[in-house]
């Protein structure tokens, strides 16, 4: 069952709009607060987001019915650290985590 949900979530992530990945951050360019980030991201928030991938996959596959603690922490970190994420839905952010 979980394997099936993960496959569905991965398929959904592949179909998600390309712009959604901007919420989950990148390894280069500029961060939300304007600082340059060309050497790769190692912040605690990025680690929280990376560790939420399994929870995000289940959340997307269940159409928002299954919410894990790691996903909740990642959603909070994204909304606190990135202005563009504050107006995004939980489902959009979960898809962005998967698209990373």
In short:
The protein is mostly helical and 100 residues long.
Average pLDDT for all residues = 73
Task: Please give the alpha-carbon distance between the first and last residues.
Answer: 24 Å
Broad shape: globular
How many structural domains are formed by the residues?
A: 1
E-strand count: 0
Total DSSP helices: 5
- What proportion of the residues is helical, as a percent range? 40-55%
| Helix and strand pattern | HHHHH
**pLDDT below 50 for ≥5 consecutive residues: which ranges?**
3-11, 13-22, 26-42
Q: What report would you give on this structure?
A:
This protein has 100 residues and is an all-alpha fold. It has one domain (2-23, 44-99). 53% of the residues lie in helices and 0% in strands. The longest helix has 14 residues, at 2-15.
Question: What brief labels describe this structure?
Answer:
disordered N terminus, 5 helices, mainly alpha, 100 residues
Write the layout of secondary structure elements.
Layout: H1 2-15, H2 44-50, H3 53-61, H4 69-81, H5 90-99
Helix pairs in contact: 1-3, 1-5, 2-4, 3-5
């Amino acid at each position: 069952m979980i394997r099936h949900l993960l496959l569905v979530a991965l398929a959904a992530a592949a179909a998600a709009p390309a712009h959604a990945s901007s919420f989950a951050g990148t390894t280069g360019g500029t961060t939300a607060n304007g600082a340059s980030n060309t050497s790769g991201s190692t912040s605690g928030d990025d680690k929280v987001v990376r560790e939420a991938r399994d929870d995000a996959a289940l959340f997307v596959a269940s159409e928002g019915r299954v919410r894990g603690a790691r996903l909740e922490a990642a959603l909070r970190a994204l909304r606190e650290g990135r202005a563009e994420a504050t107006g995004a839905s939980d489902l959009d952010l979960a898809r962005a985590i998967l698209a990373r």
